[in-house]
Amino acid sequence: MTRVVSPSTSKGLATRTKELASGQGRSSIGAGAGADVKVDRIEKRFGSHVAVQPTSFEVPAGKLVTLVGPSGSGKTTILKMIAGFEEPSGGCVLISGVDVTHIPAHKRNLGFVFQQYALFPHLTVAENVAYALKMRRVSRAEIRTRVSETLNLVRLDGLGERYPSQLSGGQQQRVAMARAIVFRPPLLLMDEPMSALDKRLRDEMQYEIRNLQQKLGITTIAVTHDQSEALVMSDVIVVLDRGAIEQSGPPQQVYKHPRSEFVATFLGESNILKGTVAFHEGKPWLAAGGVRRVPLVESDGFRDGDVVAYVVRPESITVASEKRDDAVTFVGRVVDTTFTGDAVRLRIDLGWSEPIVAKVLSRHGISLFQSGEEVAVSWSLADGTSIRC
Amino acid sequence: MKRSSLQTAALLLVPTLFVACFFMVPLIYAVGLSFGLPNFTAESYHHLVDSPVYRIVYLKTLKVALITTVTCLLLGYPTAYFVSRLHPRARATAVMLIALPFMLSVLVRNYVWMTMLQDTGVINRLLMNLGFTKEPVQLMYNQLGVTIAMVNMLVPYVIFPVLTSLMAIPPNLKVASASLGGNRLSTFLRVTLPLTATGTAAGALLTFIIALGFYITPAMLGGPREMMISSLIAFNVREVLNWPFAFSLATTLLGSTIVLYLAYRAVAPRGVVVKPI
Ligand SMILES: Nc1ncnc2c1ncn2[C@@H]1O[C@H](COP(=O)(O)OP(=O)(O)O)[C@@H](O)[C@H]1O
Ligand SMILES: [Mg+2]
What we know:
The complex is a heterodimer.
Chain A: H1 13-22, E1 37-46, E2 49-59, E3 64-68, H2 75-83, E4 90-95, E5 98-99, E6 111-113, H3 125-135, H4 140-153, H5 169-181, E7 187-191, H6 199-216, E8 219-224, H7 227-233, E9 236-241, E10 244-249, H8 251-256, H9 261-266, E11 271-280, E12 283-288, E13 291-295, E14 307-312, E15 318-320, E16 328-339, E17 343-349, E18 356-361, E19 374-379, E20 384-388
Parallel strand pairs in A: 3-8, 3-9, 6-7, 7-8
Antiparallel strand pairs in A: 1-2, 1-4, 4-5, 9-10, 11-12, 11-14, 12-13, 14-20, 15-19, 16-17, 16-19, 17-18
Helix pairs in contact in A: 3-4, 3-5, 4-5
Chain B: H1 2-34, H2 43-50, H3 52-84, H4 88-99, H5 106-117, H6 122-129, H7 143-167, H8 171-179, H9 184-212, H10 216-221, H11 229-240, H12 243-267
The structure holds adenosine-5'-diphosphate and magnesium ion.
């Protein structure tokens, strides 16, 4: 189980509870609106099927955490339990230090962006956005200003009178965002907010959501099965597999130092070299086929004979015509090359493992290396990570 | 493209001709007769307006139809709501049970109600045996009996359209309402009710229109004071043989129905399409 450290709450518990219930206590959009969230050994079983194993993580105030994992890994279920749509089979959820596990959803005061937006089809955009304010009996004049403020924030000015069916997918997405943040919730939950958009729009929205989230300082938990989205948007990513956390941490760290083969292959592309640890002159090496191949980092505390998977990313690999001294270096033969637009992918046979994939930037769309050519492959010691199996 | 639209037209030709020959032509003929075809005279209509009996029967018909419709709504909507929340298998059974009476002849159903409601009927005997009353309660040959039977026959016309529109509401909308702070009541009032308004209005209108034309039930379960306009039409066709007058009554009934329908069209929410997401 992995934990993300968070600062503890400064406000008193009683004050916070009241604010949670009434949705007040914040004067304007933004301005320290974020709550910290603690999910403690939360679990969910459907009959005998375990959807979420006891899972704990924390979200510091104002941060964006992404739960990422393949379909069916329990992401939505975790989010629903935090929102109060689903009763946990065990464990608890603390928001700003208040245990909300048994508070019904409509009293939790959390923003939720649904996978398919779930906009009210019979209400205009403005009425959709105003919904939460009406529920809180905000005065009509204030509703008007806050709705237009929020529509402006998501760049939907002038579309307030339209019905959701008259909007494009991207615009509907923004309405869903506006509706979820207009009442200044201390926590925003988003379930695959961009899965219904095409790739171009998705890339654009990733930045937009990230900007908005940082501008408002709103604590956010997003769910996605798209690893690149997770890497782009998040302060922290939590990688889930089969209802349990595989690894969590800042995106760069998780990407660079995956702690399991699952994480290594799920987040981006990886070369995985299998072997055992063999010591030579007091230093650990990865041995494959009885031959020492790759020097390992000593501080990892290996023992002789440990079975390890050695991970190196395709973009960390340098391909050159001559061997270099200062790094891990091998000679191999190019199996094939693939042009991918911004880069060229080379598959190179080292003779003792599966062909290794290297990604080199392409300047003019042509590879400097041809199939069958003999090349030197190298990477720096720090770019490799070993996972004990 | 062209070919298939031609085929569609050919396919539609037969039913169109059928409806035109055997429904529209007689209908137009009947309307014509009410105006004294081949001459033109509004005599039948003068007769209708002048005679207080017909006005009373006409108003009575509207009143019975209205009471029936309101009762059907009050019983039908909650039933549909309950059925929509059942487990799919239980829901299928419930739908079958609601539709079951449609398979019985109207006549049989009226006789069933008579055995239930008469002075020596099931209900009265139960009430007396349990000591709630000494004398039998008058449950039929009055408006109560007519209403009970009509509601029983018409309530599915409310239940089914309402159930259909309830089932078409994406379940996430209710969850969304909750996440925005809506409790069960406000979610019902602001999401469920508006999204079922069209279905409910359709069911109510259908019920009202069918109720206007009820004939056998008022005749069997109502007293002489419960005569509805259909009985009057039948009476004029069969006994008095005053067809122009009978058809003027029928035309007035048809006219009211059309006016009602147009009124509904005018007030029904527009541009709201509930798309199952
Ligand atoms: N209401 C439910 N009843 C039974 N099983 C469910 C229910 N909801 C989710 N599950 C199961 O729980 C697991 C996790 O589901 P979910 O949280 O939706 O995954 P994800 O969002 O990561 O795709 C899946 O195996 C799914 O089939
Ligand atoms: Mg999901």
